[in-house]
Design a protein that fits this description.
- The chain is an all-alpha fold and about 270 residues long.
- It starts with 5 loop residues before the first helix and ends with a helix.
- It has one domain (about 5-270).
- The protein contains 14 helices and no strands.
- Helix 8 (about 125-145) runs parallel beside helix 10 (about 180-190) and helix 10 (about 180-190) packs antiparallel against helix 14.
- Belongs to the 4-toluene sulfonate uptake permease (TSUP) (TC 2.A.102) family.
- It holds the Pfam family TauE.
- It is found in: Cell membrane.
Length: about 270
């Protein structure tokens, strides 16, 4: 078994320490009891399911955050909490990640992020959601095997991995949604559930800091996003720990069915929100 560098293993604790130092819990009253029960429950459930499948946080918690905050800070809060989940799980996901798949994906993310940033600054939010719905919808068909009669959609090549990374980078910068493209591709090429979950979550480790930096430069960091993120640390931690505990008991077939279900929910959310 591959051992993990101490610096990587300490990442979750460093992030929690950073949150403690940069966000004043006494000023903001960092307790989930101050927030709507629906939001706390949604974040707990979303954290649990993201720990199991690698995606799902934005689908479940995203809409509730948007309704609760009603501003761009909802995207920033979603980025912070999703990154926290990925960091908490990094000691177990990094050793299991498919590095052959990850390297081209990250190259694609770096290429796609400026394109997504340009789209974010020039297109309306409705246009962004429509474009994302078409892209994720197509990839959902591929992941579900609907297009399996055409082997080209299930072939794994370096060029295709870079291409998926570009799509992930575009969606990451434009809508803070890097996960669906990676999960759909990993499912389509028939990766096992451990590889899908690990590769998706480690992609988050690389993509979300880029998305947050983009938000900081072009939008500005919302104090409300930091406040709500701090208050939601506890339900996020609880859901992540529970999800990581039950993930090993989820059968392969059920895992892939749940992944496709979340991809479908992502498309519906993009179309209806």
């Amino acid at each position: 078994r591959q051992s993990l560098p101490a610096s990587v293993a300490c990442l979750p604790f460093l992030v929690l320490r950073f949150l403690t130092l940069t966000v004043d819990p006494f000023r903001w009253g960092g307790s989930p009891a101050d927030l709507p029960l629906l939001l706390v429950g949604a974040v707990f459930a979303a954290s649990m399911l993201q720990a199991v499948t690698g995606i799902g946080f934005g689908v479940i918690a995203g809409p509730v955050l948007i309704v609760t905050m009603a501003n761009a800070g909802a995207i920033q809060a979603s980025i912070l909490l999703s990154l926290l989940i990925a960091l908490l799980l990094s000691p177990s996901t990094i050793p299991r990640v498919n590095r052959r798949l990850l390297a081209p994906l990250f190259l694609g993310v770096c290429i796609g992020t400026p394109i997504g940033a340009l789209a974010f600054l020039t297109l309306t939010i409705s246009s962004l959601k429509l474009c994302a719905a078409v892209i994720v919808g197509f990839m959902t068909l591929v992941a579900a095997g609907v297009l399996s009669r055409f082997p080209i959609f299930e072939n794994d090549t370096r060029i295709r991995r870079v291409g998926i990374g570009v799509v992930s980078g575009i969606l990451n910068a434009a809508l803070a949604m890097p996960g669906p493209a990676v999960a759909a591709y990993a499912t389509a090429i028939k990766s096992d559930k451990s590889t899908i979950q690990a590769t998706t979550l480690v992609t988050f480790l690389l993509a979300y800091p880029v998305a947050f930096a983009f938000q900081a430069v072009f939008v500005g960091i919302s104090n409300e996003a930091l406040e709500i993120s701090m208050k939601l640390v506890l339900p996020t931690l609880s859901g992540t720990v529970l999800g990581a505990s039950v993930a090993r008991f989820v059968p392969e077939r059920l895992f892939k069915s749940v992944t496709v279900l979340f991809l479908i929910m992502s498309v519906l959310l993009l179309v209806s929100a």
